[in-house]
Amino acid sequence: MEKIYDIIIIGGGTAGMTAAIYGCRLGKRILIVEKNFFGGQIISTSEIENYPAFSSASGYAFATELHSQIEALNAEQVTDEVTSLQKEATSGCWRVICKKRLYSARAVIIASGTESRKLGLVGEDKLLGHGISHCATCDGALYKNRTVAVVGGGNTALEEALYLSLLCKKVYLIHRRSVFTGDLSLQHRIYDTDNIQLLLNSRIVALHGKDRLQSVELCACGQSSGKPSKENSNADSGCTANNDTKRNAAGASDNRLPAENMSSRQLENTGSNQLGNAINHSTEKLEIDALFVAIGQIPQNQPFADAVSLDPHGYIVAGENCHTNAPGVFAAGDCRTKDLRQLVTAASDGAVAATEAIKYLR
Ligand code: NAP
């Protein structure tokens, strides 16, 4: 006879494993389905400094400890990839259809997380693992004393650049705007790090290298260059330095340090003196040993698109109680609509989603 779980949790990251802790401790039959490895994105974080009571912990250690916790609670685990989620009309159970087999449960928690966004350039997939990486903590050591670049302007890019600056001879930080969106404290550390060179208002338009990445081609996209041409556009380009300038003038984004606030050293580094003519001319080659792409995340929610509502960016529409529009289906962690995607909010969501799922089962 087909086994029916109380709750199937899709995703073995922080949100999913926390949901499992709460479900198991209340005696529910839990199955966690994970397509890759348990731990999720936190595994690739070198140091967690903003989780309550942990002033410093490695992401790997955190994930390993969390996984041991769910193993001790005997949560059932399976490695499989979910392809769709369907409601069984007669039983009212949810069918979690995976590549290898299908599983049924009375309630489902989706904690599918996000995946790293790509630049959308020719050759990017082929060069991934051959000079292109999405994880400095995983691959940084391969480029000890070498010259690398990080692309992006959010917290991830700033953290990756700082981490790499400890290992590499030189780190270029390439960002398509004139200001970063990452935390001010990280921005200050970036400005104070001698071997990080900022290349602002710059966009990567091509990757060069046959079997390994050898260089990237940069295009200026500051105020002087106006809008990028269609041919040079990335999948999600938006060289919007003009918008940034307006936002700073209006003081709307108080965590953004405009270039005027940088130290004189960083301003020098940002200018054309360090990188030939990259900022002034249309395109320029930058020779590097590796490129770390840190340009945000894409939610992994396509398998659930027919079962629950997604917002225009692909996140599952769910509020702080983690309820989706489908009764019995809950969304936890980075995969749902929310303002703050952090380790602490993922753990919080896991607890909330499990508690709400258990209420639903009564
Ligand atoms: P993010 O905050 O969404 O930033 C993405 C960055 O990449 C932006 O600077 C964006 O530029 C740029 N970008 C996007 N598409 C691009 C493209 N096609 N080409 C070039 N640049 C592109 O992503 P994230 O840094 O990965 O952070 C994700 C979430 O995790 C955030 O909420 C962040 O705060 C959180 N996080 C927190 C910590 C921490 O607290 N320690 C660490 C890591 C991440 P535009 O601004 O021009 O779009």
Describe this structure in words.
This protein has 362 residues and is an alpha/beta fold. It is built from 9 helices and 17 strands. Strands 1, 2, 3, 4, 5, 6 and 17 form a 7-stranded mixed beta sheet that branches. Strands 8-15-9-10-11 form a 5-stranded parallel beta sheet. β10, α6 and β11 (196-199) form a beta-alpha-beta unit. It starts with a strand and ends with a helix. Bound molecules: NADP nicotinamide-adenine-dinucleotide phosphate. The site of NADP nicotinamide-adenine-dinucleotide phosphate has 23 residues, from α5.
Topology overview:
Layout: E1 4-10, H1 14-25, E2 30-34, H2 59-72, E3 76-79, E4 82-87, E5 94-98, E6 102-110, E7 114-116, H3 124-127, E8 132-133, H4 136-139, E9 147-151, H5 155-165, E10 170-174, H6 184-191, E11 196-199, E12 202-208, E13 215-220, H7 241-250, H8 264-270, E14 283-287, E15 290-293, E16 297-299, E17 329-331, H9 343-361
Parallel strand pairs: 1-2, 1-6, 2-3, 6-17, 8-15, 9-10, 9-15, 10-11
Antiparallel strand pairs: 4-5, 5-6, 7-16, 12-13, 13-14
Helix pairs in contact: 1-2, 1-9, 5-6
The structure holds NADP nicotinamide-adenine-dinucleotide phosphate.
The site of NADP nicotinamide-adenine-dinucleotide phosphate has 23 residues, from α5.
Number of strands: 17
The H-and-E topology, N to C, reads as EHEHEEEEEHEHEHEHEEEHHEEEEH
Biggest sheet overview: 7 strands, mixed
Low-confidence stretches: 223-256, 258-280
- Share of residues in strands: 15-25%
Our count of helices gives 9
